[in-house]
Structure formats: structure tokens, C-alpha cells
Amino acid sequence: AYAGPAGTNNVQVFPAMAVDRGGNRHVAFSACGTGHTNCQIQLVSSADQGNTWLGAVQVSNGATTATAVEPTISAGSAGVVDITWLGSAAATPDVFPNAWHGFFAQTQNAMAASPTFSQNQAETATKHDFDICFNVLPFAANPNAAPGNPHLLAS
After folding, report:
1. Looking at the predicted structure, is the pLDDT value of residue 139 above 70?
2. Per-residue pLDDT at 107
3. Which of 22, 60, 117, 135 could bond to 41 as cystine, CB 3.0-4.6 Å?
């Protein structure tokens, strides 16, 4: 359903799926650009149980969520989708120290050709202040890793 632009890496997408009351499937994921930069939350949707998918649309937006990772998703009425994620103003999740915040976005027209989203920062306090490393073993591969910071393993 999603291959990404040339030069992007879909290894650490952390996909999350929800089905709305109309039977539409929705998948939120994080897609990063070359060099593990410009990580943004994307949404793809399907009206036919995943046989075909609408094109990916960027959900995360703005300077305070220049890097967006680890989405979660829920769906309600047909086309209504809620997505949360961790966002940071840093250019990459590999930066330490870093100030991560929780974000929330909702669309009420996910099945439209160009869905619209309302987005809010869910809290003002920093939720996590270390890097979020997506490197696979060994953990020491990230030179910016905070000591003792948990790493997320890609499979």
C-alpha cells in the first residue's frame, strides 16, 4: 500500500490499524526521510478491506512536531479517525537530549481524496527527554544514545 518516495526508509514505521464503523480500514505509521530525518506520521485508508488503498496523507504538521514517531490510532463513525504520537522539534529522533511531547489529530473525512486534520499538542510537559533510537542490535550503534535509554528494535 505504501512504498515511500525514493531514498526513504520504511524499516521503523510502527504501524497501527483501526477499523471504523463503516468497515473502512485505516493504518497510521511513521515514515522517515533519507538519513533518518523528517519522520512524519502518515495515514492510509481502504474502503474494500485492504484490497486497494488511498494514497498516504501526512497527519503530523508544524515546527513542534518536526519529528513524529510511534503513532496509535482509533476509529469511530465512518471516516472518523483519531491518531496520537510522540513529536519533537528536533530534525531526527536520534538527538539527545530531546523534548518529546504527545500530539493528537483527528480527521472526520479520512476517506476523502484530501482528508483534513485538526491537531493539538496534548500536554505541555515534556513526556520523554532522551533520543528514541530505532537502530537494531547492537545498541551502541547510535553515537547520540542517552545512557540507559531504552531502544526500539526493528524486526
Report:
1. no
2. 98
3. 60
